[in-house]
Amino acid sequence: MEHSEHLLLYYLAGVALLGVSAQWLAWRLRLPSILLLLSFGVVLGIFLPPDAVFQRLSPHQEIDSDLFLFPIVSLSVAIIMLEGGLTLRLSELKQSGGVVLRLCTLGAIVSWVLTAIAAWWVLGFDARLATLIGAILVVTGPTVIAPLLRHIQPKRRIGSIVKWEGIVIDPVGAVLAVLVFEAISSESGASAPIIAWALTKTILVGGSAGLALGVLIEWAFSRYWIPDFLQGAFVLSAALASFAWSNHLQNESGLVTVTVLGIYLANQKTVSLKHVAEFKEHLVVLLIACLFIVLGSRVELAQVWQLGWPGAVFVAAMILIVRPASVALSTIGCDLNWREKVFLSFLAPRGIVAAAVASIFAIKAAKHFTSIDMVEQSEEMAAVAFLVIFGTVLVYGLFSGVVARLLGLADPNPQGVLIAGAGTAARTIAKALHDNGVLVLVVDTNFRHVAAARMEGMRAECASILSEHVAEELELGGIGRLMALTPNDTVNVLAVRVFTHHFGRQNVYQLPPAEGGAGAREAVGRQLQGRRLFDKNMSYEKLSQLLGPGGACLIKRTKLTEEFTLSDYRVQYNDAPVLMFVISEGGTVRIITADNETPPQAGDTILAIVPQQTPVHYEEDEEEGAAEKEASSGKEKPPAENPNNNQPDQDKPAGEKPAR
Questions:
Q1: Where is the segment annotated Disordered (predicted)?
Q2: pTM of the predicted protein model
Q3: Domain range holding 493?
Q4: Sheet strands (E) in 225-306
Q5: CA 541 to CA 547: how far, in whole Å?
Q6: How far apart are CA 343 and CA 322, in angstroms?
Q7: What is the tally of structural domains in the chain?
Q8: Pairing of strands 440-444, 459-462
Q9: pLDDT band at 302 (very low <50, low <70, confident <90, very high)
Q10: Residue 174 above 70 pLDDT?
C-alpha cells in the first residue's frame, strides 16, 4: 500500500513536471505548446496509463479512474473558463460583437449540422450518436485557443474575435450536447417545448448565478471585507462553489456561471482585480499543462488506429469543410475583410472541454443504449474526440501561424517598439528607429510633443502610457517591446510593470533612474525596474544633454564589416560612442542594455550616439515649431563634418539611406 501511495505521488509530480517541461521546450523551439503537451501525454500513457496507477491503489478491487478524473477535470475547466472570462473586455465588442454573436449562434448550428452529417456518412455512426458527436465538437475552448494566440500573436481585432468565440462557444457546446442527449435518450423523444425550456433554464440559472456572485464579490471588495492576500483564493473558491451549485440546479449550467462571472468582474469599474487575474493566469498555465498530459495519457491508441482512413477523412472534413462553411455563412454582411475571414476559417482547434464532454456522454450513451452496435459506437466517441483534438491541434498549431503571417495578420517575432515619452531625445531615438525600418509607436501626454512626432512621420498617440486605452485598445500588432523614456522615473517603472504582462520581462526597458546620492529610502527597488537601457549611467538628464535641444551628439548608423570592426569603430571616435541598437542582416533589432554582453558582429548595423560639431536636430523648445516646419518642407541641415574621410560609406547619420 505504501508503494502504491508513493506511485500516485510520483505520477502526479511527474505530470506537473512533464507539463511545464513541454511548455518550456515549446517556447524555446517556437512551437505551439499543446502539440508537445499531447505528445508527452501519449508517451506517458504508453508506459504508465492513469488507469494502471489508480488500479494499484487497490489491487483487489477494480477502480474506475473516471470517478476521480472527471470531477478534477470539470473543476479545472471551470477555472480555465473563469480566467478566460477575466480577459474579455466588452469594449472589444464595439468592432467585433456582431461577428462573435454570429459565430456562437449561426456558426455553432452550421458546425453542429455538418459535423453530424460527416460522422454519420464518413464514420458510419448511428444518426442519433452522430447528432450528439456534432454537438460535442462544436466547442473550441480557451485551453487551446489561448496558447495558439500566444504563439501566433495576431492583430488585436482578429485576436479578440477568436478569443471571444473560443470562450463563449464552450458553454454553448456543452449545453447543446446536454439538450441533444436528452432528446435522443428519451423513449418518446423530447418535444420542442421541453428542449426550449431546458435551454432557457440553463441560461437563466447560469447567467443569474454568475451575475449575482459577481455583484457580491464587487460589493465585498469595495468595502474591504476581503483582505488582499485572500482575494485570489476567495474568487477561486467562490467560482468553484457556484459552478458546482449551478450544475446541481441545471446540468452543464456551471460553465455559463463561471464565464459570466469572469466577464462581469473584468468589466466592472469599482475595484481593480488585475492581481486576481494574474493569479488565475499562472494557475491556468499549470492546469492546461496537466490536463493535456493526462488527456494524452488516457488515449488508447489501438482504438484511435481502428478508426482508420474514415477517421482521417472525418478530421479533414472538419478542417476543410465544416469550419470554412461555418465562418462563411456566419460572416455574410460583416465588415471583416477577406484576409480575416480566411484566417478565421483556418483556426478552430478542439480542446479539453470536447474531450471531457465526449468522455462523459460516451459513458452515459453506453449505459443507456442496449444494442451492441450502439454500445460499441458509444465507446468509440472518446476516440473520435481525441482524434479530432489531436488532428486539429496538429494542423492548426503548425500552419495557422504561417497562414496569419502570409495574410499579414500576425508577426510571431515583432520587432516594433512602443516608446513612452515624446520629448526631444525620445523623438530623436524614435526617428532613428523609424528611418531604419523599425515599427515605432510613440505615446505621450504632451500634445505638442505628439504633434512633433507625427510631423516627422511617426505614429504617435496623445495618452498616458499607464492608461487602459494604451494597453487594451491601441493596435499593438507588430510591436513587441517597450522603451520607457519619460523624464519621470516613477512613470517609467510603472510603465514597465504594466507592459511586463504584454511583452514579457525580457522585452521591457527603461532609462536607469537618476538615483544620484539617493539612499535606500529614496531609490526605486531594482526588482521593480525594467532592463536598463544603453548604459548603467544613461539617465534621462544625461540623455537630454546628449540628444536634447542644444546637445552635442547625434545618432549615427554604421555597418560593421570584416575590415571595419567594432574595435575600429571605437577607435575612430575615441571610445566616445554609446551603442543603442544592433540590427542584424535579417532585420532583427537588438536593444543594447547596461548588462549587454554580446558584441555586434560583422554584417550588423549599429545605431549609436556619437559626438557632432553642429547642433542636434532640434533647437530650444520655443523654436521647435520652426524647426519642424523646416523639416517638413524637405530642407535638410548640413551634415556634420567627418574628421575621418578615409572611411567613406561606413558611417552615416541614422536617417540616411545606406550607400549602394
A1: 612-660
A2: 0.68
A3: 416-516+524-653
A4: none
A5: 10
A6: 14
A7: 2
A8: parallel
A9: confident
A10: yes
